[in-house]
Amino acid sequence: ASNRIAEYIRSAADLETMVENVLVVVLETFSADNGVYSRLDDRTQMWRGVVGAGEGMTREIAQSFVDPVLRYPHAVEVLRTNDVVAVPNAAVYPDFPPEFLDEKIGIKSVMVIPVLSQDSVTGVIFLNYNNAYHTFTPDEVSLARGMANQISSGIERKQAEEQVRLYVDVVNSAPSGMFVWQLEDINDPRSLRLIAGNSATVEATGVDPATIVGRAMAEAFPDYMETTIPQIYADVAVTGKTVDMGETRFGNSHSGEGVFIVKAFGLPNFCVGVSFEDITDRKLEEEERQLLLE
Known about the structure:
This protein has about 290 residues and is an alpha+beta fold. It contains nine helices and eleven strands. The chain has helices at about 1-10, 15-30, 60-65, 75-80, 140-175, 200-205, 215-220, 230-240, 280-294, and strands spanning about 35-40, 45-55, 65-70, 85, 110-115, 120-130, 175-185, 190-195, 240-250, 255-265, 270-280. The strands form two sheets. Strands 3-2-1-6-5-4 form a six-stranded antiparallel sheet, sandwiched between helices. Strands 8-7-11-10-9 form a five-stranded antiparallel sheet. Helix 1 (about 1-10) packs antiparallel against helix 2, helix 1 runs parallel beside helix 5 and helix 2 (about 15-30) runs antiparallel to helix 5. The longest helix has about 35 residues, at about 140-175. It is elongated and about 90 Å long. The relative contact order is 0.10.
């Protein structure tokens, strides 16, 4: 099962399709009748269904589930413990929704697997047993914990990949020069890595971004490492704030020293967008005029 999940995570499928395929594997592994992956909307405190699979369950049905967090006490327990919750008899579980116990839905047993990010629950997988009660063994719970870690990492990876694609589209359409850096280690500014850059940056940096995308800042622009730039960008990536760096003078081995109007702004997944306007020529003209006046 672990190998099949890993294959789906590595596939080129979009996030929802990947999770749907993974959900099928999980259902087969635990002999559950159907399952739903729901994402936690932390702002509204709602569960929002994303995909579903198994007997009587489809993606469309799953996406119709938009419910307050407190409606599912077994999922609330997952939020409280960050751990797998196994319910062998839903009928005796405190405050279990009675409408899910009737003949139409008829949930008899359920396992809830957490999806985590940064040690916080961002979603859950409900594995429902409608046809017969299921007694969960310690080995099954342990296996579910291992799958929770694998699936959580996979969802984070797929979300990051889709975020990068979005950044690339936005950056490529921007009229001014723009880079997007990702901070891979929040405690180390040297871990900044370029994930997107547009052609408008060539005039400012003297470098074709296609040749440096994917590289660490220390490799792409080693001279920057002797300035405050890495720390500023790292702080923005962590805090999400916008920093107007004003007129910034810096140089690199590709294009020499230049003057730029620079703004750094926070993006999701510990990324920082950097927009800059090359005003080197304008500054030189101002300096020349000042010399003539003197």
